[in-house]
Design goal:
About 55% of the residues lie in helices and about 10% in strands. It is an alpha/beta fold. It has two domains: about 40 residues; about 170 residues, NAD(P)-binding Rossmann-like Domain (Rossmann fold), CATH 3.40.50.720.
Amino acid sequence: MATQLPVFMLIFVISCLGFISLCKPILGFLKWVWVMFLGPPKNLKHHYGSWAIVTGCTDGIGKALAFQLASKSLSLALVGRNPLKLAATADAIREKFGAQVETRNVVIDLAKTSGEEISKTVEDPIEGLDIGVLVNNAGLAYEGARFLHEVDSEVAESIIKVNIVAATWITKAVVPIMAKKKKGAIVNVGSGSYGGFCSYPLYTIYAATKA
C-alpha cells in the first residue's frame, strides 16, 4: 500500500500537468473562435483612431481594404504612385461614404524612393492626424515565372524595396504616433499562395519578400 500511494500521486501529478498544458491551446482556440466568429466587431475608430493609412490602395486587395475601412467611418490617407488613380479612388470613397470620411492622397513611387525619403514623404501629410490603422499592402512582382538569374537586377531591386524596405520605413513613420497614444493596429499583407505557407519556385524573390 505504501508503494502504491507514491505511484498514484505521481500519476495524478503528471495527469494534472498534462491537463494544464492542454488548457492553454484549447483556451487559445476558443478565444480565436470567439473573436473571429462569435464576438462583436471592434469599433476601429474607438479602439485605434480616426484615420487609417493604406498603401497600394488603387487596385485589388488594397482598394477593397480602403473601402472596408471607410465603411467603418475611418478617414483615409491613400498612398500610391499614380496621382490619377489615387484621385479616382478618393473620389469614389467620398461619393459612397460622404463627408464623414476624409481623404488625403500621398503620391510616392515606393520602388524609386529611398527609405528615409519614404518616411519623410509620409510623415508630412499625416502630421497631426489621429492615425489608428496602417495597412502595408503595396506589393510588386515580376511578370511570368523565371529563374533567379533571369530576373532583371532593376526589377529584383524594386521588388525588395516595395515589399520590404517601403513597408519598414512607412511603419517607422507611423509607429511614433501610435506609441504616443498607446494604441494602434498595423497590418502587413503577405501572400499565402506565394510565400506564406509553401515554396513558390520561379517566383523566389516575391515569395521571400511576401512570406
